[in-house]
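re: the backbone from monday

yeah here it is again, tokenized this time
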């Protein structure tokens, strides 16, 4: 079958495009007033596939859960709610349509440039991040339950065979983080809305020079130290820079923050081990091993 029957006669079958996803996209009433011109595959991950939809009027971003999504305890309704809140203060693309039962979300497609790590040295970037973190941590929290990190970790361990060479080394080091995992899984007054995946690929300077975060699938109510630890490690920051970005919001206790840094590294090791096992990819396995060894 070369086309999606009766739907998209312009679209030749492409191994990167899932025809089931295309049928779901094209079946929406959104396109009654702005017909689709083109759909392009963007990326695929362990849990989802993404597309760019081009219509006669706009571009949209679409993300679909794939067959592995249920394995990783994603709460898509929380994600959609958080992204909508963030979009209201210009921190995220505006969600246009979501169907959590069929596992997809469509958002506005934001034109811009993803953040380059070297840009973190620029004072103008610091100004943008100071506003970004203030707006993020002022989002209302009363509609959300705290992220159950203990449960999430166990769901991740369920995806890594106990016979895997890295299972025991990662599991053994969990003892060190058990009290913090328990604490993070309980309600605290210090909890804030957190993105929890602030990397260069997920941060964008728009054409209007606004700083916006993409990919809110990990976002949750949690402690901002966890959010900032992930951010700190992803950009290889120093203390002075993080102080510059956050001192107008709160003062960081660096002894406590050091434990959050190690926890985020341990979580990364677990995630890379899972990816390496699923994709039979030695580079992910080596990275996981290096992260674990660096904790010693």
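seq for it, each position gets an aa:
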């Amino acid at each position: 079958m070369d086309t999606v029957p009766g739907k998209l006669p312009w679209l030749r079958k492409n191994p990167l495009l899932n025809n089931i996803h295309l049928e779901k996209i094209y079946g929406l009433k959104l396109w009654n007033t702005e017909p689709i011109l083109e759909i392009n595959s963007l990326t695929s991950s362990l849990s989802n596939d993404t597309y760019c939809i081009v219509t006669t009027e706009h571009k949209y971003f679409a993300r679909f859960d794939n067959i592995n999504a249920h394995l990783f305890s994603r709460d898509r309704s929380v994600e959609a709610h958080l992204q909508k809140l963030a979009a209201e203060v210009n921190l995220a693309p505006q969600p246009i349509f979501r169907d959590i039962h069929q596992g997809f979300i469509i958002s506005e497609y934001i034109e811009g440039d993803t953040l380059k790590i070297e840009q973190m040295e620029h004072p103008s970037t610091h100004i943008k991040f100071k506003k970004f973190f203030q707006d993020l941590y002022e989002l209302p929290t009363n509609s959300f339950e705290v992220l159950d990190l203990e449960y999430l970790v166990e769901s991740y361990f369920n995806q890594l065979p106990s016979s895997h060479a890295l299972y025991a080394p990662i599991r053994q080091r969990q003892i060190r983080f058990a009290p913090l995992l328990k604490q993070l899984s309980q309600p605290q007054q210090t909890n804030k809305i957190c993105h929890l995946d602030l990397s260069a690929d997920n941060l964008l300077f728009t054409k209007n020079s606004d700083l916006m975060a993409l990919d809110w699938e990990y976002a949750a109510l949690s402690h901002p130290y966890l959010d900032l630890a992930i951010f700190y490690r992803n950009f290889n920051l120093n203390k002075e820079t993080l102080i510059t970005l956050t001192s107008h919001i709160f003062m960081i206790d660096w002894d406590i923050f050091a434990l959050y840094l190690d926890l985020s590294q341990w979580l990364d090791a677990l995630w890379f081990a899972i990816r390496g096992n699923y994709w039979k990819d030695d580079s992910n396995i080596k990275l996981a091993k290096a992260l674990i060894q660096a904790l010693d």
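The chain has two domains: 19-108, 113-294. The radius of gyration is 20 Å.
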